[in-house]
What does this fold into?
Amino acid sequence: MFCVTRSTFKRIVALVKDNPMLQGQNSEKQSKHFVPEIHLLATFKFFGAEGNQGGSKRLRENLGMGKGSISNYVDRGVKAILSLRDQCFFWPSEEERLEISSRIKSRYFFKNCVGIIDGTHLGLSTRPENCGEEYFTRKGQYAISALIIVDDKKRIRHASVGWPGSVHDNRIWSNSRIVLNPRDYFSPNEYTIGDSAFTNSNIM
It folds into this structure.
């Protein structure tokens, strides 16, 4: 279930309110169509409906918008959110990794651990036209695989997204930028921790 708290919603609104994607060309005539709160509300509700046609219909009815309007609001909302990527989504610096590892050691007793990793599936509403069978997961749905690393405060610090749903977590990990270029991400003795899906190494 996709859920955004009220406080998080307000923080995101504050971050995107001046984004060019949410500014009308004619401020007097179009200002009501470029309210950041409405764009984010439509976008998050669309995410919560899993992006399928049934959810889209309910969303149009709930917000009193036409099919084209919902599409435009979601498109602008997604682009505004993605513009925050470099500002909100980045690998911790060496100094921050020391702080993270210190907190993890203090609470969970893992020395030098700077992240927790796991895989997840991002569900698709329909079977992809090309190589669709590769997106069919062991859980009986079509999906894209995502590998997520979070810190001890549950903040996402890295994501590898886009592999077909049938691909094993360890294969995604083995081909990630982190494994291929570990010195760009870890100081000596630092590592992430994951479950038995991952092969043990000096960084796992």
